[in-house]
Write a structure and sequence with these properties.
By secondary structure, the protein is α/β, with parallel strands linked by helices. The chain has helices spanning about 40-50, 65-75, 90-100, 100-105, 120-125, 140-145, and strands spanning about 5, 30-35, 55-60, 75-80, 110-115, 130-135. It has one domain (about 25-145): Rossmann fold, CATH 3.40.50.2300.
């Protein structure tokens, strides 16, 4: 399993991607669970995903809520912040893998980190993540990583 890290230096507005054909944007039925305690960041990520064509998202603002949501929402991918107040993103990833139905155990996990730390790649890989993005997340970097997900 190869893990990707994207260090983000600055943001480009979504309008910069207006020349991207609509067919190249995300599959509308990909169920994405966003886990982030910062409501503003989580909601911004949800809007970005919707702008990119990913219409089916659910947002959980805590790890505990994410565990319930994953069982009810059956996500195809989980994007989660590594720094949650009730447990770390690494702990949540392990719980998602071990405590939920077998179909959820195989769900790809993408981490979002506050900053690029050299140990993030190894820690995220060990916890079962397939990728790690650095805040602030650029829309097309996220889109590229989602398009690389196993189908």
């Amino acid at each position: 399993m190869q893990i990707h890290s994207v260090a983000i230096a600055g943001r480009r507005p979504l309008e910069a991607y207006d020349d991207v054909p609509a067919a190249a944007l995300g599959p509308r039925n990909l169920r994405i669970l966003i886990v982030n305690e910062d409501m503003r960041s989580a909601d911004s990520l949800k809007r970005t995903l919707q702008d990119l064509g990913y219409a089916t998202t659910f947002t959980a603002y805590s790890a505990r809520r994410a565990l319930v949501a994953a069982a009810d929402f059956f996500p195809a991918v989980v994007i989660l912040d590594l720094e949650l107040p009730d447990m770390t993103g690494y702990q949540l990833a392990r719980k998602l893998r071990s405590h939920l139905k077998s179909s959820v155990r195989r769900v790809p996990l993408l981490a979002i980190a506050e900053r690029h730390i050299s140990g993030n790649l190894e820690l995220t890989r060990d916890a079962g993540f397939i990728g790690c993005l650095t805040k602030p997340v650029l829309p097309m970097e996220l889109h590229t990583m989602l398009r690389r997900l196993p189908r």
